[in-house]
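Exam revision sheet. Question 4 asks you to relate a sequence to its structure. Input first:
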Amino acid sequence: RDARLLKPDEFERVFKENERARTDSLLVMARPNALGHARLGMIVAKRLLPRAVDRNRIKRCIRETFRLQRQDLPACDFVIRLVAKPVVGKEVRDLARTLSRAGQRALLKWPAQPLTE
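Answer key, structure tokens:
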């Protein structure tokens, strides 16, 4: 639970200022945090995937990729948004690399600012 973005203001902070990276179907937004570990938020719209089973499958794939990469990621809040209907079986193909790239860009943009939670 400590690795998730739960409150609207946590999402809003990432939406206001972020660094972005993208795969074919996912947009990754990152913003450094003061917690010392990475956190994840997801947006999977019903208009792109009307069936709940498809939305849940995408979310499971994203969470698992994040879980496997979490120790290697910088201390950032990541919001992953589905922006296009994914090809079945290739939903999170380049997500691990994209997470890392967005996090590194965010750290370069905000290198030594005092960060708030």
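Marking note for examiners. Helices lie at 8-16, 52-69, 95-109.
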